[in-house]
Structures are given as C-alpha cells and as structure tokens.
Amino acid sequence: MELSLENIGLRLSGKTILDDVSFTVGDGQFMSILGESGAGKSTTLKVISGLILQDSGRVLFDGCCVDDMPTHKRDIAIVFQDIRLFPNMDVAQNVAFPLKMRKVAKAERMRVAEEMLEAVQLGGYGSRRTYELSGGQQQRVALARALAAKPRALLLDEPFSGLDEQLREEMRKLVSSLHERFNITSLMVTHDPDEALTMSDSIVFMRDGKLVQVGTPRDMLLHPAHKAVKACFGEASAIEGSVEAGVFTSGKLVIPAPDVVDGAAVLVRAPDTPPFVHSL
C-alpha cells in the first residue's frame, strides 16, 4: 500500500504541532521519521492511524482519502514503545486478539498466532504469560500481534527505545527481516540516526512540526539540507558493514568507498568531519 500525507496541519491547545507536512511511503517501502523530541514524529503516526484528526490536509491510502475512516477500519497496525500487551491473556491470545475482533474462528486465529510467533522466533511460547517474558520477548509478541491480521501498513513508534543495545540490534535485524518477508509498507519513528540509516529505504527529518528533508540514507548522510540534519548525522558513531567494488553497504545504507579494499569495514562519523569508511 502506498501511504501519503498531503499538507497536514494540526494545532493542539493553541500550539502548532504539525505544519504543512507532506511525504509518501511507497508500496512495500520502509521509511523512518527522525528528529528531536517534540518534532511531531509520533503525532504524525497518530494522524495516519486516525487516533488524531488533523485540522488540514489529507491522509491517502493508495490515493484514496481516509480522513473519514475510523482507526479500526484503516487496516493498519501500530507497535508502541510501551508495548501494551494484555496481562490477562497468554502470549498466543495476545497475538490472536486482532483476529478475534474480526470474528475469525478460534482454530484459525490460534494457527495464525503460532505462525506469527514462529516468525518472530518465539515458537512454543504461546501458553506463557506475558509477564514471564523479557522486554525483548514482549516486543516480539507485540510485533507478532501487529502482523497477525496482515495489515496494509505497519507503524512503529520508537519500538526499541526501552531495550539495551544488544537487544536493540537483534530487534532491528528482526524487524528488517519481517519487513522483507511480508513486503509490508512500514513507517518507523526513531531518535537513532544509525537505526534510520541502516533500516530505511528513505528518511523523513522533522523539526518543530515541519518537514525539513526527505531522502535516501545516502542523501541524508552525505548531502544534509539543513544544519539540524547535518548535526544529527554528524554525531560520533561507527557503523559496521562491508565494502565490495568500492561501495560500502550496511543494511539499506549504500555509499561510495572508492579507496577501500573489499571486505569488512566500518563507517566512521565524527562532529564537523565528513564520514569516512575504514577497512577492518
């Protein structure tokens, strides 16, 4: 599904939250929304889902306006950073819940729940209680639940923010693999520039409710259009990847590395210094 915002404007309590926001997530694409706290990132997801109705502009799914469509009929799924699993249900019941709301027969929804748990590497966990799981496992259950109803689009609101770095990396890889497997249009809010660079087909950078730049990971890293974008992607960081035929690749990030030998490599960023690739 192609997901588009056209000139979205929103004011809450007399304050402008979103100001003329327009962008498109192509069918099957993975896009990240990046920016500081208060930039309007999570609010943008809520407008897309119908949890908040904008004051101006339109939300389009495959070119059709859905502004009058309630959240439960938009056929999208949201994974929040606070997970929101049901403690009174076991893991399988949590995953199957969207199908229960659609009145799918119990046997079928349990079959789908087990299939989705296998997809997120939690096969055999269906009978466990959610409070028996680790934070990373709970996040996997939330992903399985989101995918169980086969939504047309998946919205992710800082889904890895409560995890330690090792778990974050595992979840990044899992989400990327699920995106590829199910070919689902995905939009993720994040504060992490490395996350956005390596997971995304394209990135939206927002600041003070406005869209500052939209581009590929390469564009955002090498050709920032605003000082805020440059500062965000200029923070000290090292991204592991590999070089082949003068090109560095790490996930979705692909940039030239003409003087680097083939093999394992790392992209190094530092404040006020152009990014460079170094072989390992």
Search tags:
280 residues; alpha/beta; 6-stranded mixed beta sheet; 5-stranded antiparallel beta sheet; 8 helices; 15 strands; 33% strand; globular
Q: Would you write up a description of this structure?
A:
With 280 residues, the protein is of the alpha/beta class. 31% of the residues lie in helices and 33% in strands. It contains eight helices and 15 strands. The longest helix has 18 residues. It is globular.
Helix content: 25-40%
Number of strands: 15
What radius of gyration results from the CA coordinates?
20 Å
- Please tell me the overall pLDDT: 94
The biggest sheet amounts to:
6 strands, mixed
List the uncertain runs. Answer: none
Q: Could you say which structural class the secondary elements and strand pairing correspond to?
A: alpha/beta
